[in-house]
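All the exercises in this workshop are built on plain-text protein records. Sequence and backbone structure share a record, each on its own labelled line. The question running through the whole workshop is how a given chain folds. The record below serves as our worked example for the rest of this section.
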Amino acid sequence: MQYSRRRTRQVQIDHITVGSDAPVVVQSMTNTDTADAAATARQVKELSDAGSELVRITVNSPEAAAKVAEIRSRLNDMGCNTPLVGDFHFNGERLLAEFPDCARALSKYRINPGNVGKGAKGDEKFAYMIRTAAEHGKAVRIGVNWGSLDQSLAKKMMDANLASAAPKSPEAVMKEALIVSALQSAQKAVDLGLPENKIILSCKVSAVQDLIEVYRDLGSRCDYPLHLGLTEAGMGSKGIVASTAALSVLLQQGIGDTIRISLTPEPGSPRTQEVVVAQEILQTMGLRSFTPMVTACPGCGRTTSTVFQELARDIQQYLREQMAVWRNQYPGVESLNVAVMGCVVNGPGESKLADIGISLPGTGETPVAPVYVDGERKVTLKGNNMAAEFLAIVQQYVEENYGEGGKKRAKSRVIPIQAA
């Protein structure tokens, strides 16, 4: 596959490197009340265990800011070193001043130029936050949003556009204003003493084509790492499809260094779903590996039984749950490929191509299920205990092939970088 990443500066956020040939980083955000330190720490740990490499928390009140250092301490006690990103709007400079432990405990600040304030007062607030970040060696994401764009900048650019000989559409001017806001704010930050290798930019909108257009333009005009994501992706399949459509185009063009899938959670669904979607976008594109992948057929009139559907679901869930342990114990296991097929049409062929595959019987077929390991038929399963027996084969394969003394090693992926 011909693929190259956009060349950027590299930003260090604790042990996480962002930009250029570093892996695209998965980020998520809590939805707990940050003032509830125990609940927030638990959710950060859940997101981290699911694979989130950066977690953003809301810092919107004195009560929230007062608990950030405790949240960091709780996470450290749980053995979780995932960097925390503080999300500041409107009053960030006051919270950082009043709660210096918060300023120190966070690994990165997120600042929205449109929500800092207007005029000279806004400039002072922005300057205080930037200088605080520089003093503590913290990275900053300057995050511009379509819904909270600096209105004074937008009006100035709209007025200039109307006075021009060939005015652009209002939509085009607004997209340009997003980019200008991000770039001008980044330059202000540098002028205030924040090193250029501590800055990440984002220009989020909620429409797929607008996001692609804005990030292509932004990426061509700076060498800062870029954080990707629709600002409000939506709920369920709509949010997943919209995020995948937008981010896949940009990632394929080498644009994007951190990603977040801003899903509206279904009632009762885990917050970790947004992490899973982000990982699966990167993994199905072949850009990173996070967890063993399950290939499964969609089913048809040949597969009236639900056995293969249930087994595919159980295998997928089992593999993802095991990764919390396997990630450290069996390096390279994330590249494992498992096939769960439902009939004789493609079953044996797909099973042979996977590391481990099972070809279940379709309607009217002999009620046996051959299992293939590294392309060779290993055993034939039958009866009501096939799922447990197949899981045992998967576990044995992992133990024998990955980690210390294993036959397989983690595959390193070298991503070529575009020439400057």
